[in-house]
Amino acid sequence: MRQEVIDHFKSKVLDKRVPIDALLAAKLYDSLSDAAKRQVKLPSDFDRMLIKAHQKMKKYGKTVP
Fold this sequence. Notes:
Blueprint: H1 2-9, H2 22-37, H3 45-59
């Protein structure tokens, strides 16, 4: 029992890292940074309220004055 506990908590050897192509890494980094730059501008609370009211009235065939 004691040996099982010791074996369980013994430090384990990690797998070696596999080297990747530098061109592939640069392409991945560029695509991730481009995605971070393209942020979606969300409407303000007031604009969202107007949009929802317009969609609701449009659903029932009425127009927002």
